[in-house]
Design brief:
Elements lengths: L10 H15 L3 H10 L6 H5 L4 H10 L9 H9 L13 H11 L4 H12 L2 H10 L11 H10 L9 H10 L1 H36 L13 E9 L12 H14 L2 E7 L3 H12 L7 E9 L2 E2 L2 E3 L5 E3 H6 L14 E6 L12 E3 L25 E5 L8 E3 L3 E2 H13 L6 H13 L14 E4 L17
Parallel strand pairs: 1-2, 1-3, 3-7, 7-9
Antiparallel strand pairs: 4-5, 5-6, 8-10, 9-12, 10-11
Amino acid sequence: MPRSCINMEDDNNLEFCQKLLFINENLGHDDVEALKFLCSDLISLKNLESIDSAYKLFEKLMCEDLLNKENCFLVAELLFLIKQQYLLHQIGYTKEKVQKERSTKRIISSYRIMLYNLAEEITTEDFDHIKFLLKKDIPKTVKSFLSLLRYLEKQELLSENNLEILENVFKSLSKSLMKRINQYKTEKEEEKLSVASGLDECLWKTSLQENPEEATQYEMTSKHRGLCIIFNNFKFKTMNFRKGSCKDEGELKSVFEWLGFTVTAHKNKTKEEMENILRLCRNDPKHQESDCFVCCILTHGDSGCVFSSDEKSIAIKEILNYFTAKQCPGLINKPKLFFVQACQGKDEQKGVLLEADARSVNNSLSVPKNIPQMYIPTEADFLLGMATVDGCFAVRHIEKGSWYIQALCHLLKRLVPREEDILTILTIVNNDVSKQAIDEKGEMKQMPQPAFTLRKKVIFPVPSDVSLL
């Protein structure tokens, strides 16, 4: 249940909340706006709009399980970033302690910090010039650079992977601001290379050295197997209603609960809601005590992306990147499994009871252009199970559910008790799905395709009650 400072009877909780109140009383309006901006990746924009004090922000963070008396590093990091270090002692921190812990505990993304630092450097004159240069893209009511950034993000003109609008402005405005953006981009690339080539290689070697007899498969010994989240988008504004998708959701929930996962299903979520759920899941402390993570996505799609209920595209790779070693330390060295039921093209399908999970269809079969490997992070321990190869449709029966998800669930139930690993199971899923045909001649078929950077076998322990399903 959501937690709040207000109804806590424990003396320690009361003392903690009193410290947060003291911090709140010593922060001004600009400080609160800065905190809200830095937390934009943790709390939805809709919820942030109603927050007008640091205390309300802290309460919201507590409700989202991002802050409590045992773990108040997030507040320490925020105070450090807005240069209010004199308040750190209230929660048992010093500037040096925050700097040391940020190397492993950092919650605020480097992208968000870069934008905030830009805002700190921009003068009133700079801001006036920026508003003039962007007058066609922004409303006249924008009063600060932070609010301008929020507006650009809301309009999808600015994102972690799209800084073009700022680069175009700063090229003619300020070399120092442009230098900060270039520095961020360089550090981001170095970070990716470091995580991909260094961290996981080190973890692999350590595992082989310390546990050579266990090096062939991932550990599955925790009481809590892990979290499984399911996105089930079946209602859209203009795209077709995805009949049969709830059948898939039910099967997935049943199977993964049987395998020991804590399953949460999210129906018909907007892009902002999906991203917020992913951020909250990424920061969930339960990952520390788990063996594995599973994410299932049921929706319409196109090449390299899936669609939210408000029909906005989300790159598959961006979804997976929420759970890299840097972004989600709790899942380091643990398998992260993603299963996507969505078209990756617009090819036509035939048959009364069959539908394609694409936003539209055309009259010719397209040749697969890419493989899912390009959608997964370069570091280890990821598996992406795609219902179809790139450029092709994925078939869903409007009563029985999709070919891919139904085959996956059926074979997990049948082969986990035989102690088969997940890649073996997916190979048999490929075979079963490929044997099904859309037309009587068998000319139009579906071929799933997995991509992975797994270092060991993923073998789920046999559930105690094999006959449960």
